[in-house]
User: Fold these one by one.
Assistant:
Number 1:
Amino acid sequence: MSASTLIETDALVVGAGPVGLFQVFQLGLLGMSAQVVDALPEPGGQCVALYPDKPIYDVPGVPACSGRELAQRLLEQASPFLPRQADGQWASLHLNQRVASLRPTGDGRFELHTDHGQQFLARAVFVAAGAGAFVPRTLKMPGLALAPNVHHHLPAADATPAWAGQHLVVHGGGEEAVSAVLNLLAEAPERRPARLTLLHRRDAFQVDAELDAALREQLSLGSVQLALGLPDGAEYQQERPEEGLRSLRLLGADGQHHHLPLDHLLIRLGLSPKLGPLSEWGLTLERKQVAVSPDRFESSLPGVYAVGDINTYPGKKRLLLCGFHEATLAAHAAHAALHPDAPQHLLYTTTSPLLKARLGRG
Ligand SMILES: Cc1cc2nc3c(=O)[nH]c(=O)nc-3n(C[C@H](O)[C@H](O)[C@H](O)COP(=O)(O)OP(=O)(O)OC[C@H]3O[C@@H](n4cnc5c(N)ncnc54)[C@H](O)[C@@H]3O)c2cc1C
């Protein structure tokens, strides 16, 4: 899909976290089309970005599932309304881009732009932005952002990793870095790097005892090498960052510099949420949260709803369950506002032929 196309939609959902995904499902049940945008390369929000392998025990009807499993289930549930194209890409899920601007058009609709130039014209907006757009923490070095062999995310399961068969350096000492190393080692041989180095400033990691033991075992087996030092300089191919990073300069504990040559660098220093442009959309904020009414979850700008961790109202709890409830009521409120003359009967998915047909189960 061309980045400059204007897409008209009933609803634009800002954020493909768990609440944004459930929002799409609820809108779909009510017959409303939705487009979704997320800054991250894969859907799932905090569940996938912060705790993919940790168990969640308090989702109703799901005694236990990991963050990644929950995201997969929400995607599957929303799939009738989030179709895939022939090439496997989602037709209405726009990843790796941030919604940068929101402007009422004056005819009851909203014009939104992403930082990749994608434009939307939406009849309602659902801000499901969590704590803001997740942006990876990175190394502050001139030129690094231009180097094509510097990465911050693991590739999707169906994409071939750029580093397959090459020397990959993973930088970080927390769970994101250590889990990445262990996950890389568990990959199919054709997806694995030929050589794997973990770079951290010291030989101690901020992870639980289980992860630490798993890493130590791989280090003792020699399947991953440990490089110690503080990266404070970069060398590029032909001295041009666009040609790729060639090596990192490390400051060792002995005060000496040495160089770490590499083919690819994967920086895993964690993610930090950036509220960013959202604060300029004219919505009333209270301590960086969008203030909403607790019956409609509508913001101070009529037609713009806020659901999940991004909103605040009396009694707010930042729990998945609460976000799902908010998405449900916000969808019904938006539907009633956009179709004031339509009957607003409550229908059950178990018994309504209309809902079953919308779900493709008629
Ligand atoms: C370690 C941990 C454990 C947790 N365990 C539990 C638990 O056991 N039970 C429970 O109920 N809750 C738990 N939570 C809380 C739960 O994860 C959150 O309540 C939930 O993720 C909120 O979902 P959300 O969709 O509102 O926001 P998020 O999951 O934060 O998703 C928001 C998404 O919006 C995107 N975004 C933001 N701004 C923009 C923009 N301008 N443009 C594009 N994209 C944007 C972000 O990149 C992000 O992907 C836990 C949280 C953490 C951190």
Number 2:
Amino acid sequence: MKIGREIVLRLLKRYSDKIREEDFLAVYVSKDHKDLFTILIATILTQNTSDKNALKAFHNLMKKTNGRIDPENILNMDISELEMLVKPAGMYRRRAKTLINVARFFINEKKSIEKMILSRECEKLKEKLLEIEGVGEKTVDVVLLNMMSCPYFPVDTHIMRITRRLGLVDERAGYKEISSFWRSVVDEVYYLKLHLILIHHGRTICRAIKPLCEKCVIKDLCRYREKTG
Ligand code: SF4
């Protein structure tokens, strides 16, 4: 716990002024769009791709829908057209199918979703959104943290790698354990900031291949080199 706090302090100091909202599509979109559907669509576009590619696909959808991405607009599109619009984000067939699932789900569950948003029922809303085929826990946590400041700590591939390398969790630790670790280290008002900072650290220094350990501000607290020799 003590090491965890020290790591957070150093990362905050190093990266606080380096985070640009436009590098994180969900954050960027949440600024201008307060509706759950649009933020969820944007977050699905970021799955397994860079935010840069996801942003291109998002702009395509915005252009096609005249700035209003809603379930009806998605369902009114021809599947092949939708696939072409989301193509910059990759895996376009699967992604288009997920967007259609989401649109249908939102039409069917409109009232219950609206009620949960109004009463800020984070847990119920999370359970509800996880019923959608193709939508996983990380996506839901990103959406609810960004949109409603729900107390979730999303763990992406960068955060998973960094946390394991640091030796803060077991090598085989999964999503829930890693998320719970970071939630135990900082107050929930810092969840989003720390989430973005860890991703930035993973993109720039603690890269998947050839991490730049010599330049790392937490290298003396990390067990990676100890483990890899
Ligand atoms: S020392 Fe290396 S492995 Fe450890 S957190 Fe820093 S960059 Fe990642």
Number 3:
Amino acid sequence: MVLRSLQLLFLSLSILLGGSGALFAKDIDISGIRFGQNGNVTRFVLDVSEKAEPSIFLLADPYRVVIDLPEADWRASDSVKASGAVDGFRHGLFSPGIYRIVLDLKDPAVIKSSFHLPPRGGYGHRLVLDLETTSRDRFLVAVKDSKKARPVIVAKATPEVVSPRRSVTGKRVIVIDPGHGGPDPGNLGVIGVHEKVIVLAIARAVRDELVSTGRYDVRMTRDRDIFWPVRERFRIARRHGADLFISIHADSINRPDVKGGSVYNLSETASDKEAARLAARENKSDVIAGVNLEQADDEVSSILIDLAQRETMNFSAQFAAILVSELERDVPMLRRAHRFANLGMLKAPDVPSVLLEAGYLTNKQNARFLNSRDGQRRIAKAVRRAIDRYFEQMVALGR
Ligand SMILES: [Zn+2]
């Protein structure tokens, strides 16, 4: 209890000190990983630069082990093959100060032990995790226990989050949201570049284009490889007092011939099967990054009920229509490019929001376009033209 209060005190202090946040979270290097198997025990070893106290917990459906460490530099190979109970792994910056590794399990497995090994026999510091396969029932009990027992890694104060205040410059505030990030890479296209990387590049091009006009105050939900939960993205937009929120993604489908972008508005019912499938995939981002969904409040559902925010919906639809028409001039687009789906990141009740699926990473030509400077610039210019037109309309409406 005393420890907990101290941690809270330090957290407040670190926020007061302007988010240096280095009181608990210190940076480490992860230089290697290994999997081993001995009977029904799977051993996961991390080579680390120094002793680091992990915060480990389990998540069900699908079975996952989440290992949170202080902010880390990942130098280990991503092509190491998982074995034993582990099917695969992901990693990345989860939030400032917390580096997350997610192990996907084939079968339920609980943490038998986790410990630190000091340098010895040619090895440096190691963090060892032994997982023991078990029944579903025992796993579910362990999920609950792991939540109670785990130590808290204190997140650094987040510079990305600002106080709720409208732009002092009087400019329109545009919030650009590059999808995915950190332990959630998004989909991997045929050219071998993850969605999180490509959409960040597109978002930066859009930001630069908008800033160059001098007319807009542009903010990004992320400007590096870091994760935000789905609903935190629109909360960031609200905190910035956004006039417009644009989430940028790139799609995938198991048909390599399909290419072209599309623009989504929020709707409780999807416009078509493809849109429903897309919403399911994009909303899964939190599951992939190991977010504990039980902790989620039901803000979103109450917001959805309150769709008396008709005005926001109308403005969102108007902007989407303009954006589609501008993109169609210069960017490959799907035939019916204006679509609707129940997308979690579009649920700000008071910020007109769209999700741009810039194209398909499963089509080689489309993926190359999205990954090229030229393609990114074309998208950026089309987005800028659309935003210009949209706000001209707003002015005409006296908004
Ligand atoms: Zn996406």
Number 4:
Amino acid sequence: MVGRTAHLRTTFDAVAERYDRVRPGYPRQTVEDLGHLAALQAGSRVLEIGCGTGQLTVPLARLGTTVTAVELGAALAGVARRNAAAYPSVQVVVGAFEEVPLAEDAFDLVVAATSFHWIDPATRLTKSARVLRPGGSLAVIDTHHIAGGTDQFFVDVQRHYEKWDPMTPPGLRLQGADAIPVARPDLEDRDLFEPAVLRRYEWEAEYTTSEYLALLLTYSNHLALPAPQQDGLISGIRSLIDTRFGGTVTKRYLTELRVIRRRTPHSDRPRSR
Ligand SMILES: C[S@@+](CC[C@H](N)C(=O)[O-])C[C@H]1O[C@@H](n2cnc3c(N)ncnc32)[C@H](O)[C@@H]1O
């Protein structure tokens, strides 16, 4: 991994405690569906990629699974260990998934929650397949910010991004879930995996001004802004929420769960690629 992505994926570690405080977990139905689709049971062996401070790790441990979590950031890993302290079956390893040595065929589930996009696309599917037992599942959870909630705020806030963040495309507008493509060619490998089963969950969260600003300061693109731009952006958004929206905004999320089974030696192979 090189360049901007390699830098951005390290930014969360400096704000580990804030990340833990303000980043949401996952809808209960998502965890239940993951358990069913991956046929998890007590003692199932789970490898979690990029666990953060344990947003999914703890619900997985509650299902009785044994979780090995590989987390790039040492501070994030420390908070995840603290959050999972009641579950001796959780082990958090500090390192990059691409580099950490892992046994072959050792896991029933490999799962990445809002983290697979940070893993090197050249190796993430092949390494996941290698560590899964045949018939085991890879689950990828993605989080999208979609249209809804305090709609007008998200229209009005755009001018602050255009002023302070050079990476913001002009005129950007949030899209509804229907406009988010269902197909994910980057998660397809017909030799290694069967087609994905997709589930989608829409939900909302309400934030006070200070909670919303803290949330923004856990996103890699906001964290990577030079201090003067970050300060300008944050103070503009603070004033917008306080003066025009009564100190509260609601954000609408789309959580996507894709579960992809590793082919077994007996699976029907595709005839052509
Ligand atoms: C957006 S956060 C998601 C954290 C958590 N899973 C959640 O649901 O909130 C992405 C996480 O992936 C971790 N990460 C990024 N690249 C990684 C890599 N190559 N190997 C392991 N973890 C990585 C980051 O440190 C961060 O904790």
